[in-house]
């Protein structure tokens, strides 16, 4: 297969501790791949290994069909953007951009040309003579991206580049990074713990935990068909509602019963057959629950009690209690709910996820 | 309701008895340290008959520069009567290369230990630090033997080597801690940009080490300038530093002690550290603060 970055049988250990083990990853040319996971899942370690900034214990790293496992970072054809910007504080923006080229002894004209192009793309021309300490966070990160840009890198590596920015700038720069990718069509590997960044930017997301990739798929598949309980719980905000229970044989096929809920499972988009008697975890995203008027007349309709409401402008999040279970529902902001209101509730089974309670894998 | 004053705006400041006591103590402490220096200065400008009258706090009735001239050019250290100027020159010859080399070595050590993390680096650092806590006297005799084995005993390079070696632990500690506060991403970025060990050191790390370089320079300049023990033992007769020469001047005067000359010579000796402190005090504080707070 034609791949831009390929990680084969990668293992990274510190002493007896395996931070990453047996990891396989192939990234297509021009692909935007996001490594997503909670802190300590090994995503930054993997990125650093691709960059050559940490030594691998076993396995290979290939970039552009070349084995770069033992190559220095500078020889791998990569550019990297860091969370802390990592701009050289004593140099002007221009010197920051050109440092790598000057170290590599490029000609004066070539350096000027590349710096001018990067500055034009990122619209930082007015800042070229300034020092990093006189720039705002967003400007600093733009310069940091520019430093990767001037290298004409085949692969861009981003290590949580937006995490130090405030919420509004983060959204702006996120769009800008996506625009940059559409313009350059370079391969980009992007580490983040922010699922919104991952979902909005990625061609494919690799959800990581415990030094292993849990699921590698396009954003919508990850969102709609999480392959295990961890991915289901990690993706989505607020988190997916989970109910413990078991599968039972009913008049209309297999049903789920547990925690005050009983619902037929006809229409479930599953991977394996649903066998009655199995202990399972039934998952529903807050935005996929049928609520209030939508729920009336649906099979498996129940009545839930409103605990509190969080209006968020475009929509509202309503927290409900249902028997001993507590769950959240996302609904339109057209109607206000008061604590204690009793509201009908039903399940859109076609969008549910059911996991084996023991293996935690999707059924 | 019982409070007649309605609090509003800036809180008024009152000079409390505690405050007054504090200031009194500070003034007293300043006087305590300044008084000896004052006596030295006025004495150095007095003639010997006036000194012998015994009014050590009075200003000189007739200002004379003769003691300074004598101290600089004519005072006798043992058999040589060339004043303290020889020692000044020697002290500079020792201090400048020792300061430069020990700071450079400390910076390289600190940089390597913080960023490149060589295998066993922590062990080396621990051993280095342990060396800093063993009393110097323990090293003296072995060091004399070792230096004479390589023909460096009683030479200028010999005393410089001694100062560089003994300055290394503290310098390494200083720079290691300073670089530990530098975000490691900066080092990674420089490596992606193609910097090697020396490129990153000279073009990225050194340019941002200003405050700690000043601190290191102050420590080394004053430490090496004020050194007596190493200078006496390792420098050899031709390169005795100023401190040793001063001791010889003060202790070898025959007949009446020339207090004015001794005072002038002492002030001359103290001049370099004094100037360093006055010029760099601001930098020194800033450097220490920079080490404590992340920039």
UniProtKB/TrEMBL annotation, chain A:
UniProt xrefs under SUPFAM superfamilies: MOP-like, P-loop containing nucleoside triphosphate hydrolases
Record's keyword terms, sorted: ATP-binding, Nucleotide-binding, Transport
Keyword Iron-sulfur: no
Top-rank taxon: Bacteria
Record-level GO BP terms: carbohydrate transport
Molecular function terms from GO: ABC-type transporter activity; ATP binding; ATP hydrolysis activity
A Gene Ontology term for the protein's cellular component: ATP-binding cassette (ABC) transporter complex, substrate-binding subunit-containing
Family matches, as PROSITE patterns: ABC_TRANSPORTER_1 (PS00211), ABC_TRANSPORTER_2 (PS50893)
InterPro entries: AAA+_ATPase (IPR003593), ABC_transporter-like_ATP-bd (IPR003439), ABC_transporter-like_CS (IPR017871), ABC_transpr_MalK-like (IPR015855), ABC_transpr_MalK/UgpC-like (IPR047641), Mo/tungstate-bd_C_term_dom (IPR008995), NA-bd_OB-fold (IPR012340), OB_MalK-like (IPR040582)
Pfam families: ABC_tran (PF00005), OB_MalK (PF17912)
Every ABC transporter domain range: 5-235
Record carries keyword Transport: yes
Family membership: Belongs to the ABC transporter superfamily.
Name this protein carries in UniProt: ABC transporter ATP-binding protein
Organism: Thioclava dalianensis
From TrEMBL, chain B:
Pfam families listed in its UniProt record: BPD_transp_1
Transmembrane segments: 20-39, 94-116, 123-144, 156-175, 196-219, 263-285
Places the protein is found: Cell membrane
Cellular component per GO, a single term: plasma membrane
Chief localization: membrane
Swiss-Prot/TrEMBL keywords: Membrane, Transmembrane, Transmembrane helix, Transport
Alphabetical GO biological process terms: transmembrane transport
Domain ABC transmembrane type-1, first and last residues per copy: 88-280
Entry-linked InterPro entries: MetI-like (IPR000515), MetI-like_sf (IPR035906)
Membrane topology value: Multi-pass membrane protein
UniProt keyword Transmembrane helix, yes or no: yes
Similarity comment: family membership: Belongs to the binding-protein-dependent transport system permease family.
Name by which UniProt lists this protein: Sugar ABC transporter permease
Organism this protein belongs to: Thioclava dalianensis
